[in-house]
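Hi, here's the filled form for the chain we discussed.

Project: internal
Contact: R.S.
Residues: 115
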Amino acid sequence: QVQLVESGGGLVQAGGSLRLSCIASGSIFSINAMGWYRQAPGKQRELVAAVTSGGTTRYIDSVKGRFTISRDNAKNTVYLQMNSLKPEDTAVYYCYADRTTIRLWGQGTQVTVSS
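And the returned structure, exactly as it came back:
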């Protein structure tokens, strides 16, 4: 079993920053990609950023230049540094990890950006 535990969400004013963390524990072998999705009220869940075990990253267009995903394989942790936050970034952010053919999910952390 693999458990993903997120932290770092909260309330911030527009233009501010937050850093999300997601720690994987348990049977963490064979984890490849890790990343973050988000889901705003009334909207579909969307992929925000992802990073492979080799460090290749990708981002949704709306966060490019503002968000940075990084990964510490030694700590089994993935981070999402979010700068220049906008009200439209408000959502529940979910960490995920791909272990072989299975996608595992964290419980989600709320990010609220006030205008």
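Let me know if anything looks off before we file it.
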